[in-house]
C-alpha cells in the first residue's frame, strides 16, 4: 500500500496482530511499518498515518542524517577497505593511479585536495566493486531461478547519500553504494542479497525477510555492522 504525505509517497507494510492499539515505525529504507489488529480498517490506518505526518518526516530526516554521517568515512590519514583499516599514503605524480596492499592505500596523484582524493578513490572503488560483484552475483542469480525468475538484473555502483542500495524491479536494475567498499565482504554480499530479494518480493513483507533468513541466516549481523559504521 502507498500513502501520500505532503506530496511524497511512502510504501506501507501492514502487520495484523492481536493488539489493542496501532503502532508505527519507519524502516531505514523509508518504509512505514504499521502493526494493528483486524478491527482497524484501511481508512483507519490511513488516518492514523496522516496524524503522524510530522513525526514521520522528522524520523526520516534523523535517519538520513545518521546514515550520511556513517557514509562520510573518508579520512585523510587512513581508510577502511573491505573492513580492514589501511594507512593512506599520497605520492605526487602527474599520472593518477591507486594501489592497495595489505597495509596501505597508495595514491599517485598531482592534486592531493581531499575532494580530489575522494573522487579518485570512489572511481577506483566502483571498478573494484563491479569486479567483486561479478564473482558474488552468481549465487543470487541462481536464487532468482529457484524462485521462477529467468532474467538477471543490471547492477551498477554510485555514491549514494542515504542508503546502501536500491532496486527497481520494473526495470530489473540494482544500484549499490560505492561506500560499501569500506565494509567487510559479508556486508556487501548482504546488501546484494537484499536488493536481489526485492526482485522476488518488492516490499518488506514477511516473505521478504523469510528469503533473507533462508539464503543468509546470519544477515542480521551484517545489518548491525552497517548501522554502527566505524
Give the topology, please:
Blueprint: E1 2-5, E2 8-16, E3 23-26, E4 32-36, H1 42-51, H2 53-71, E5 78-81, E6 84-92, E7 97-100, E8 104-109, H3 114-146, E9 154-158, E10 165-168, E11 173-177, H4 185-200, H5 206-215, H6 219-228
Parallel strand pairs: 2-4, 6-8, 9-11
Antiparallel strand pairs: 1-2, 3-4, 5-6, 7-8, 10-11
Helix pairs in contact: 3-4, 4-5
In short, what is this structure?
This protein has 6 helices and 11 strands. The protein is an alpha/beta fold and 230 residues long.
Q: How large is the count of helical segments?
A: 6
Q: Structural class, please?
A: alpha/beta
Largest sheet: 4 strands, mixed
Mean pLDDT value: 91
Q: Round the Cα radius of gyration to an integer and report it.
A: 20 Å
CATH third-tier fold name of the largest domain: Zincin-like
Poorly predicted runs: none
Principal-axis shape: globular
Q: Helix content range of the residues, please?
A: 40-55%
The CATH superfamily of the largest domain is Metalloproteases ("zincins"), catalytic domain
The CATH class designation of the largest domain is Alpha Beta
Textual characterization of the structure:
This protein has helices spanning 42-51, 53-71, 114-146, 185-200, 206-215, 219-228; strands spanning 2-5, 8-16, 23-26, 32-36, 78-81, 84-92, 97-100, 104-109, 154-158, 165-168, 173-177. It is of the alpha/beta class and 230 residues long. It folds into two domains: 2-71, no CATH class; 118-228, 2-Layer Sandwich (Zincin-like). The strands form three sheets. It has a four-stranded mixed sheet, covered by helices on one side. A four-stranded mixed sheet has the order 5-6-8-7, covered by helices on one side. A hairpin with a 2-residue loop joins strand 5 and strand 6. Helix 3 crosses helix 4 (185-200). The mean pLDDT is 91.
Amino acid at each position: 500500500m502507498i500513502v501520500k504525505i505532503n506530496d511524497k509517497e511512502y510504501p506501507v507494510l501492514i502487520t495484523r496482530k492481536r493488539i489493542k492499539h496501532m503502532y508505527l515505525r519507519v524502516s531505514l529504507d523509508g518504509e512505514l511499518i504499521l502493526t494493528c489488529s483486524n478491527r482497524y480498517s484501511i481508512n483507519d490506518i490511513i488516518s492514523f498515518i496522516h496524524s503522524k505526518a510530522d513525526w514521520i518526516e522528522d524520523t526520516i530526516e534523523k535517519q538520513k542524517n545518521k546514515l550520511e554521517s556513517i557514509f562520510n568515512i573518508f579520512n585523510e590519514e587512513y581508510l577502511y577497505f573491505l573492513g580492514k583499516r589501511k594507512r593512506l599514503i599520497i605520492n605526487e605524480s602527474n599520472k593518477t593511479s591507486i594501489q592497495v596492499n595489505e597495509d596501505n592505500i597508495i595514491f599517485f596523484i598531482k592534486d592531493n585536495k581531499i575532494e580530489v582524493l575522494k573522487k579518485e578513490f570512489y572511481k577506483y572503488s566502483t571498478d573494484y566493486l563491479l569486479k567483486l560483484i561479478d564473482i558474488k552475483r552468481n549465487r543470487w542469480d541462481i536464487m532468482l531461478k529457484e524462485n521462477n525468475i529467468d532474467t538477471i538484473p543490471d547492477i551498477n555502483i554510485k555514491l549514494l547519500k542515504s542508503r546502501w542500495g536500491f532496486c527497481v524491479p520494473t526495470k530489473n536494475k540494482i544500484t549499490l553504494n560505492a561506500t560499501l567498499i569500506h565494509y567487510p565482504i559479508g556486508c556487501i554480499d548482504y546488501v546484494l542479497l537484499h536488493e536481489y530479494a526485492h526482485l522476488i518480493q518488492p516490499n518488506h513483507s514477511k516473505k521478504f525477510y523469510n528469503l533473507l533468513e533462508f539464503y543468509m541466516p546470519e544477515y542480521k549481523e551484517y545489518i548491525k555492522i552497517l548501522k554502527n559504521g566505524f
